[in-house]
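Batch job 17 of 40 flagged for manual review because the log was empty.
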Amino acid sequence: MNVKPEDMPIYFWIGIALVLLAQSTWLFIDARRRGHHRWFWGIWGLIHFPSPLLFYLLWSRFFKEKFFSKRRRS
C-alpha cells in the first residue's frame, strides 16, 4: 500500500505536530531544570520523535548523573 502525504487526513498532521510540540516543550523545561542545554534539546525535540526523548532520558538520568557527576566531586 503506497500512501502519499497529500492523502493523509488533516487530523493526522495535527496529531504529529502536537506530539512533537509536547515532546519539545517537556525536553526544554526538564533540561532547564536540570541545567542541561535546554535550547539544543528543545529544538531537537521539534524535529524528531522519539529518539531525542530516549537520548535525553539516557543522558540526563543515567550517564550524566552516574559517570560525570562523580568526576566533578573529586
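Reviewer: the log was empty due to a logging misconfiguration, but the result itself is present. Helices lie at 10-34, 38-47, 51-73. Unflagging and moving on to job 18.
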